[in-house]
Amino acid sequence: MVTLKDANYSEIEHQCQLELEKLKLEEESLISELNGMLNQRTYIEDKIKGLSRLMPTLKVMKHEAQELVTTINDISDSSEKISSKIRQLDLARGNVDECLLRVNDLIDLEICSQGVQQAILDLDYEKGAAHVHRFLSMDQSLLKRTANDMNNVTNMLKSVRTLQDAASQLRAIVEHKFNEAITNEDLVSVERFFKIFPLLGMHQEGIRDFCSFLRTKIGLTADKNLKSAISTPLADKRHSIIYADTLILLFEGLARVIDTHQPLIETYYGPGRLLSAVSILQKECDKQVKRIVLEWGKARQIQKKIQQVSETSRMTSSGSFSKIEKTDPKDLDIVIGEITLMHFRCEIYNKFLQRKVLADIEVGISETEQKTKSIKTLEQLILNSDLSQCKHDLLSHYLRLEQYFMEESVAKAVNMDSLEPGQQTSSMVDDTFFIVRKCIRRSISTGSLDGICVIINNACRVLENDYCDILKARLKQGYPSGYLDLTQAYNVLHNSIQQGRLQPGDTEQSRTAFIVALNNADISTEYVTALVDNIMKEIEGACPNMNTKEQGKLESCLSGISAVSAKLSEIIEYGIQQLKSTAIKPRVNPWVDTFMNFSHQLSEDELSAYEAGESFVQTLIMNLETLLSSFKHILSTNNYELFIQVLTLEVTQRFEKVVMKSQFNRLGGLVLDKEVRSLAGYIVSGTYWSARDQFARLTQIATILNFDYIEEINDYYGNADGAINWRLAPSEIKTVLNLRTDFKSEEIKRLRL
Amino acid sequence: MDDYKFLFKVVLVGNAGVGKTCLVRRFTQGLFPPGQGATIGVDFMIKTVDVGNEKVKLQIWDTAGQERFRSITQSYYRSAHALILVYDISCQPTFDCLPDWLREIEEYASSKVLRVLVGNKIDRDDREIPIQVGEEFAERHNMYFLETSAKESDNVERLFMQIAEDLMKQARMTNVPRYDPNSYNVDSSSQESSCCSRLT
Ligand SMILES: Nc1nc2c(ncn2[C@@H]2O[C@H](COP(=O)(O)OP(=O)(O)OP(=O)(O)O)[C@@H](O)[C@H]2O)c(=O)[nH]1
Ligand SMILES: [Mg+2]
Prior knowledge:
The structure holds two protein chains of two kinds. Chain A is mainly α. Chain A has helices at about 1-120, 125-135, 140-150, 155-185, 185-195, 205-230, 240-270, 275-300, 300-315, 330-365, 370-385, 385-415, 425-445, 450-475, 485-490, 505-540, 550-595, 605-610, 615-630, 635-660, 665-685, 695-705, 715, 730-740, 745-750. Chain A contains 25 helices and no strands. In chain A, helix 13 (about 425-445) packs antiparallel against helix 14. The two termini of chain A are about 80 Å apart. The model of chain A is unreliable at about 485-505 (pLDDT under 50). By secondary structure, chain B is α/β, with parallel strands linked by helices. Chain B has a single domain (about 5-175), classed as P-loop containing nucleotide triphosphate hydrolases (Rossmann fold, 3-Layer(aba) Sandwich), CATH 3.40.50. Helices cover about 35% and strands about 25% of the residues of chain B. Chain B has seven helices and six strands. A six-stranded mixed sheet of chain B has the order 2-3-1-4-5-6, sandwiched between helices. The interface between A and B is medium-sized, with 26 and 22 residues. The complex binds guanosine-5'-triphosphate and magnesium ion. Magnesium ion binds next to helix 1 of chain B.
């Protein structure tokens, strides 16, 4: 009891002690706070004193601010007044200005009316026209008002009438003199009066008359050029492109006329007037182009050529390369070249016109609506010109002939196909792609994207149909099996192989033909890719500013060529499958099947004897070596790779089959494992691609058959450290284990995989 | 990256002025262009549409009807998946030329191409070709048939959408790789039967 009480007291005491400590701490902090406040007191008192000193100043400030507001209001009022005064002043000054203008006009009117008559009498038309120009520059309505405001009206009206009379007199004179100068071919006077027209407000007439004059001159030159073109002797170096030359002369002449006279027009007539000048010149351009193209068509017998070409293509449209007499594509080569040149020149001239006139419109016409209208007029002028029509016709002719040229030349290349000794591919590949590239290049030189696209489309058709079909047809004739000595066949047959005309029994020739076709298909794939890359670059160089739509058009057409690659791959696949069934299977299967002739249940002695002799796998490898080496140098690299792939697949599958039909003991398994390894090693060493994967199943089968005891499978299976990626299903593993005669089937059955 | 699964080429042909360009512009841009000039060569437009849950990209080639561009336009027939042959219901000569157009199609287009006959400008009240005449012609030549107005936007959407759906159906049916090109005679015959059904 006592101890309990004691304990209670000591506890209470301890608590009191704690409380006391807490209170002490609180006291200390309160004291320090109080001290802090005391310390601030003086500072705060200072502040208060300072503030009370400021009070009177603030009052003064408020008062002053109010005064300022009043002042500002006053100022604003007065400035309002001032500005209205200024407005009045402006008005007054405007009136004064107008008055001055009127006075000036009046004075000038007087001067001009006096001067103009004298100038006309003096034949000083520049001076006279300058007077009229001054008169015309006066605001005519203002003049009328002046007349109403004046007392002495008669004088002024007289001056006006004088000037109006003088103006029409001068106009008549200038027009007359101008025509006279033209008749006399007096170029100096022509230019002189050309400059006077705009002074008299005769801009349109001036441009019309002047450009008609230029037009006549251009026409005369063009006539002369065309005549000399027509009479160019056949022996002349430029005979074959003389009409292109004539067209070029015309365009260069026109461009020169425009280039030299544009500054003149701009200086005396102001910018923005080139369109009307060009419209007049275009008439002559149209007329001459039409004549040149007409004469060209006659001289080159274009209609006849086009007709022949379309007749042949109609007749052959069903069967691609039949034997009808037709125009030799070579005979068209030159005229096709001439057309591209002519078309290109038309294209360039149109672009030149567009650029020139657009620039002039840009500078000369500021009002948007008027500008759009002018641009539209220009577009229509170019679009509807006979030049453009001729250009379209030329392109149409070009396309007809070029398509024929490509088709027929490729047909020829195919028909004249030949094999150089030691080559893996025959001449038709290089020849065909040379022709296709040449035609596409030529289309690029027309400068017309539509033209390029058509020729690309045509190239797709020729390659995909005509060309690929020939390759396919050759492969379809098959690869004859029988005794294999292709190297020999190759040597025998190095000259022209004419496909489809092989004698029956020409086994070696058929084989060579087959292999060459397969190689041709492979190399063509590379050529197609290179072709697309090259022409893409060339087109980008020739048409640098294609818009997205044009680019889309081109890409769509080019993708057609890429599609040819797909077709070629199909053909190669077809050929390889053919080889598989005639050259690989019939040989490989018997070789592998000899496996069954050997016992795989060996004693130690039998093992030594087996290893000392010619083993199964050595023979197999030797045979495969012979087979592969007979194809190695005649197949293209890619095709040879494909060939090994197919061969490997065939060998491994067949091998698996015969293993599954055999029975093994421990040593037999050991031998198999060794044999599979050396076979895999042999094939892998000869290829670039990984053949090991194709051996996976066979290797695993051999591993199983090489086990010391059944449970060894657990080292390779499931979560074991040595676990491998099995290509055999659990049931297959068990089947393989069962091939071992020394493994008990109940134990195998008990395995849990 | 475009996220479309199918790309089809649709080519419009027919006499000058029957409204090919207007049909295409109505479909691709939703407008009826005023003061439409004749097409030069061939024009190219793209529109991606949804068919079911799939994006289908239609590459539309609008060819010029004028004779002088024939050598350009013919070269687009071969790769076309669908050909739209257009005439003007208010202009007999454009209908009379249809056999010529069909001959061209026979000569240049793939035998598998989907062919659609379109009588355009039905908003006009000076019709010269009764609808039955067009219908009958289409039936005789195994073509789809539809009358449209590019101006009033009648049947335009439907025309192109139906083509997209049909081509997609076809593409799905023939997803077996064409190993031997000679084998396509087989599926072209099966496809012809579907051509007899009509859009209207
Ligand atoms: N009333 C009416 N007019 C139309 C219709 N579609 C087109 N047009 C008019 O027909 C004319 C020719 O139309 P385009 O679309 O340029 O004809 P096109 O077939 O493209 O002609 P080309 O390009 O020369 O082959 C234009 O004046 C159009 O306004 C239509 O549905 N109704
Ligand atoms: Mg059009």
